[in-house]
Amino acid sequence: MRMRDVLLVGLMLFGLFFGAGNIIFPVSMGQLAGREWAPAFAGFAVTAVGLPVAGVAALAAGGASGPYELASRVGKRYARFFSSALYLCVGPLFAVPRCASVPYELGVAPLLAPLFGEGDALLRVGFSTAFFAAAFFLSLRSNRLLTVVGKVLTPLFAVSLVVLCVAAFADLGGSGVQAAPQGAYAGSPLSTGLLEGYKTMDVLASLAFGTVVVAAARDRAALGRPAEGAREGGVPKRALVEAGAVGGLLMAAAYGALALLGAESRSVFEAAPNGGAALGLVARHCLGEGGQALLTAVVVLACLKCAVGLLAACAEGHRAMFRSRLGYVQWLALFAAVSYALSLVGLNEIVALSVPVLSLLYPPAIALIFVTLVVGRRPGMQAAYRWTTAFAFAAALFDLLAALPEGVQALAPVAALVDGASAWLPLYGFGLGWVVPTLAGFAVGLFASKRARARART
Question: Among residues 238, 201, 207, which one has the least CA distance to residue 56?
């Protein structure tokens, strides 16, 4: 692709990833880390930027257009289960409903509370209706997402975020970077930031967004250089890596600015309960009532572009996987309707139910990315994919148990399994108990693949 097209796809990728949660996490981290914000941000960037970019690179290395095609190296049945569960968890069952709830609670409700009163139910219904109507309309044509997200929504969001950060830096003055770190950041800011970035779960989104990102990159490559765009099954590998690097650099810059903003805010405020409250305090302190309006614009735009990408990815992914009578628009309408309903009632319960499922999916997703980056599409390596995934999935079952509600964890069999994992799985206490088993599975898979190739030669 031409450099302009690479930058455009990279901007789209940045816009798809950067939702409201991505704004809130680094601000809270900066507040808690204080003068140790830089090492905390470095750790955060490894897992919140490095892993998602690695997911895009894996799609390029594997010549895949989405998670189903990538996971098919493990097996067709597993690929259908894994891809569908991934799409549903980062789509209508979890992330997309939150895309409407977060801007309402963080921006719209505080801004309009003087007119409608606190907690007005009709205001929430009206906002959610308008939000999902806009998201559905903007997602109707998946081939226009590059224009909608890359050329329109992301630049508007970026300008709003830059204005907010510049105003905050000009007002706060920088003395807050001397504030003492709190909690785990006082002893180990780097590793604490690493774990905070791991919690963003953006690596799942990197695979989910792969469908729409690869399609956008393929279209731009076909426009610029048809012969190159047609190679590798229509997946322009180098262009994807370059666009992923552009998106990663933009994400790192935004995360760094927000983390520094959070650290500097300690010159005026104590650490807030969460990043949303901290950002609201900063916006109102620096810009008055106009600050709340600007913050509302930032979070609404952030969540709208994220919802557009997720709905489109889920609809396109299920259309391609199941190839039933339901087309893209029908899947899109179904997912938008479910997301709308869940944004109105029971979101906390849905989040609580989704966390164990996400804990189960995250290790196999990283394992899939890892093995793809190492072995790619080399022939005779299916055993490496299968053994690595099997070991990662088995270890992830213990992460699922640890994420279950406290009442379930108190049951004797569950408690025994969790205690056993804590004692025998390295790094389990940090939520990384899957790392060593995954590496062991990869080693077993490599050995099995070499033996299979040796038998084939003889």
Answer: 207
- CA-only gyration radius of the chain, Å: 22
Task: Quickly tell me which residue has 């891809």 as its tokens.
Answer: 83
- The pTM of this model reads 0.87
For helices 95-103 and 328-344, the axis angle rounded to 10 degrees is 50
Q: How far apart are CA 88 and CA 335, in angstroms?
A: 9
Q: How far is CA 77 from CA 68, 125, 144, 383, in A?
A: 10, 39, 31, 16
Residue with tokens 């940090």: 430
Length of the chain: 458
Nearest by Cα to 396 from 447, 431, 430: 431
Q: Which residues of 16-51 are buried (b: 16+ CB within 10 A; e: fewer)?
A: bbbbbbbbbbbbbbbbbbbebbbbbbbbbbebbbbb
E-assigned strands of 74-225?
Answer: none
Looking at the predicted structure, is the pLDDT value of residue 387 above 60? yes
Q: How far is CA 457 from CA 73, 134, 362, 446, 451, in A?
A: 22, 58, 37, 17, 10
Tokens of 209: 């967004």
Return the axis-axis angle of helices 37-45 and 237-264, rounded to nearest 10°: 160
pLDDT at 182 over 80: yes
Q: Within the chain, what is the greatest distance between any pair of CA atoms? A: 80
Tokens of 79: 């690929």
Q: Is the pLDDT of residue 137 over 60?
A: yes
CA distance 383 to 369: 15
Q: Round to whole Å and give the CA distance between 226 and 2.
A: 12
